[in-house]
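Note to self: user wants both folds in one dump. Writing first protein now.
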Amino acid sequence: MVGNNVQVSVDEAAYPREMKRCTKCREVKPCTEFYKKAAAKDGRREQCKACTKADRASHKRVCAIDDCEKPVLARGWCNAHYRRWRSHGDPLKMVIVRHTGCSVEGCDRPHYMKTYCTLHHRRVETNGDPGGVESQLQSREGPCEVDDCEEDVWAKGMCVAHYGLNRRNGSPDTRVRNRRKAADIPEVCEIEGCNKPYKMNGYCQMHAFRVAEHGDTGPAEVMLRPQKGKTCKVPDCDRPAKSRDKCARHFRLELRHENPERAREEVLRRRTRQNENGMLTVTNKDLARLYASPCAECGATGKVEADHIIPVANPFGRTSIGNLQPLCRSCNSSKSDDLMVVWRARKARDARRDEAA
C-alpha cells in the first residue's frame, strides 16, 4: 500500500516508465499507445487508444432508419430524415419537385424560384401578385416611338433617354420639362438687389448657404470679399474694404448693430461649443506671453489676438494653451474658423486669382 488510495502490484512496480497497463484490455503497452491527459499523474489516459476508439464507436448513435448509418441529429434520425419528417410528416417520404417552367398560365419562361420565372417572382416580391403573362418591358426590337428618334427601344416603346423623361415628367417630350422648369424655377436669386443665378429654394448659392447655416439670408452684398483698390471708409482705418466699403472688423460691427439677436445667438453658440469641446485652464501669464509674441503668420507685433489653431467649431477644438497661437487682427479675421492648412490654401488661391486678373 503506497499512500492512501493508490495500489501498485508487484508486477507493475517492475514495469519501466515507458510502459503502461490498459485498465480495460489489461495489456501492457508503450505509453505512446495512450492518449495524453494533463490531469493524470503520468500524463496519459487509463485506456489505450484501441479501447478508447472501440468505446466511442459503441456509444455513437446512428440514424434509426434501416441501412442509414449517418449520425443522429434529433428524434433518433439523421439530418436528411429529420427534415423530411418536419416537411412532410414522414421521415421516409421523399418528394422531389422539379419545375421546368413558370407556373403562371401561358408563360413559357424558365423557372427561377418559388414556381415562378424571374419576371413573375419579382412581381410577387414587390406587389404580392404575379400579374398576367405580359411583360412590363415591351419588346426591345425597333426604333423609339418618339418622333425624330432612331435609338433602340428600351422600355414601353421608348429609348433609355425618353423612358427616363417619361418617368420623371410624365411625358417623353423635352419641351414639357423645359416649360415646367421655366414656370417653377426663377432665373436669379429672389433677394432684392442680388442678381446671382438661382441655385436652390429661391436663393443663389451664397444666400442658400446663409439660410442653411444661420437661418437668415443677410444683406444682398457679398460678405467679406476684398474690394480692389478701396479702403475702409471709417475714419483713421486704412484696412482694405471687404463689403459696404468697410473692412471686415467694421463690417461685422455694423452687422451686429443691425441684427443684435443674431449676434447674441452666435455668441451663445460659440460658448456652447466651447463647453462641449472642453475648456482647460489658461492663466493670465500664458495670455500675456501670447499677446507679447508676434503674429505667427505675418510677424506683425501690433493688435495681436489669441487664435484657436483647431477652431472651436471643430469637435476637436479645445480652449487650452496648446491650441492657442498669436495672430494679428487682420490674419485672425481672415482665418475665421478654418484650419491653418485650409486658410493658407485659400490665400494662395486668392493670390493666384488676383494675379490672373
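First done. Writing the second protein, which came from a different request thread.
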Amino acid sequence: MKRDWYDLDFRYLLEHPDFRAFRIYEQAKGFRNDLMDTFSEDAFENRREYICGFYRGEHGELYREYPYLTPQQADGFVAETVEKVNAIIQAALAVWNEEVPFTLEDLQPSQFWISEKKLKDVQAWFNPDDLKNFNPIPVKMLDGIPIMTDGHTRAVAALLAGKSAVPLTWDRDDLGWDLYRECVKACRERNITKPQDLVNRILPEEEYHEKWDLWCDGMRGEI
C-alpha cells in the first residue's frame, strides 16, 4: 500500500507541476527551529530537503494498476480530509464570532449514563415550545471534536420532547481537559457519539451513582 501511496503522490506532482503547496514548501529554505526543543535546530530543513529530494527523484511506472490504493480512493481521502479540516476551521472561526454552528446531533457527549431523577426534574420545567428558560448547553472544541462539557440531561430531555436544536454556548472555562478526554474515550468505547445515544441509557439514582459518579471519582484519582 505504501508503494501505491507514494506513486500516487509522484503521479499527482507529474500531472500538476505547479501544485502551489509543494512549491511553497520546496522554496521554504533555511527555516531554523526555535519553537520545539524536541527537535534540532535544523530538523525542519533536513526533512524539507529529504521530502523534496525524494519527490523530485526517480520513480517507476505511474500509470499502472493500483491494487491497494486506487487514484479514486486517494482523491476521496483528500476530499474527505479537506472537508473535516474546513469544518474544524469554521468551528474555530465561529468561536471567535461567538456562534456555535451545531445542533445536538453534532455533539459528542462526555457522559455515558443519565440520571432518571435528574431527567424527571428537567422534564418538570422543560417546555419545548419556549426555550427562554433553557440554560445553554456548553460546548468545547476538543481535539477537533465539538464535545458537550455539561447539560447531558437537558439534551436528553430535549430529544425526548422532539427537539434537535437547543441553545448552545461555547465553554470558555479552563477545565481539566485530560479528564474530559478520558470521558470522551469511554463514551466512544460504548458507541456513544451523539446525545441520541443516551436516550436508552437512563438509570435509577442509586445505579447512576454507582455506574457514573463513582466511575468519575475513580478516573479523577487516576489522572
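Dump finished. Worth passing along: The longest helix spans residues 71-96.
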